[in-house]
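Quick one: co-fold with zinc ion.
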Amino acid sequence: MAENNLQEYQCPNCTGPLEFRGDVQKMVCIYCESEFDMSQFSDNDRKKEEKTDWSQASAQTLDAGAQGMTEFECKACGAVMVSDGQVGATECPYCGNPAIIQSTFEGMNLPDGIIPFAVNKDTAMNKMKEFYSGKKLIPDSFISNNRMEKIQGVYVPFWLFDCDVEGHGFYKATKVKRRFTKNVTENGQQKTENWKEVEEYAVSRSAKMRYEKVPADGSKEMKDEYMDSIEPFDYSKLTAYNSAYFSGYLANKYDESPEDVKERVDKRIRTTTEQSVRETVKNYDSVNTESCNVSINNGNISYCMLPVWMLTTRWNGGQYTFAVNGQTGKVTGDMPIDSGKSTKMFMLTLIVSLIITEVLAYFIGGGDFLYLAVAAVISIIIAAITVSSAKSSMVAHNKVEAQHYVVKGSFKLTGENDRYVRTYEERG
Ligand SMILES: [Zn+2]
Ligand SMILES: [Zn+2]
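Sure, here it is.
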């Protein structure tokens, strides 16, 4: 049997990965030193796929035909939005399409909670201007004032995930005890090599923590990286739904169920848990993660609506969305690049750096062709770097890790074991 297969078996004592040791014909856990007979294991004991059961409170609904409610549907992207009749929709905030159809209200699930808008339209427009300022390559007409006027306040549907998590991490860690040199002969040549004496440890850590309100948007039309990058929301302002909060805004109906987004949330929680447990392994010169088992318990999902100012502009066949957190004013967005402006920037930078480098090259090389050629190449590189850094400043998505949703003070180290394995020497 290949060793890799055996690694899939877990230690019944500590959940660490087991290794098969030929000399004793046993499965051995290097973390807690338990030994097990091969006969104890069947295929059922293979490391189980990690699953989580999430439960969800049953939702209240606002029934079809409710007073004054109107529905809007975007024929281009399929977004369905609801308003209380105080506000219309002339274009889709998600895809910028003007083909919005008004239809009768067909009912909706009411959120368990809502964070009301705290940033008004003028502030959102100012945030947008700030965001655009200094971006040298945006086409002028893209940021015209009457375009910005079209920004819309949308309550975006979110699923919030709460859970208790246990993580068991297993690591191979080393400490360098001593460095020394060795004289060796290679191909008849004498040389000195650097060597070190290394102590290896089998390290395990167990920890518990609680996550609350890890968000995932329930809107297919909304790109996930947009919502991730305007997080976090201040959940202390989360209140019970009241129809008054909808007045003047659109509310997007969810079209992704918790089932659809669960995998993403799961992965986010697992990654963050693995990192947090890993960070408790300290005072080693190297740490390699062998495995980390994460179990998610008491999972609970609630449905909320969070405030976002949105504007999507179509430009030369591309779609550019701008979003502002309607509670905190945090901004994210994509911008088109004006090719005329970027060519101009390239040429200007090239001319200026050519003048400077060629003059320098002339004084150093005394008119030697090689010096002048090198100066020209350097100038082209400078111009290319200038333009590419201006281009990369045009996209701004900064992801917030699930770390933010670990309940303060809930992280507890529940087990730690650092077991000496062996000492060996290696180059380096
Ligand atoms: Zn063990
Ligand atoms: Zn649309």
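If it helps, The chain has three domains: 1-49, 54-166+203-337+399-418, 340-392.
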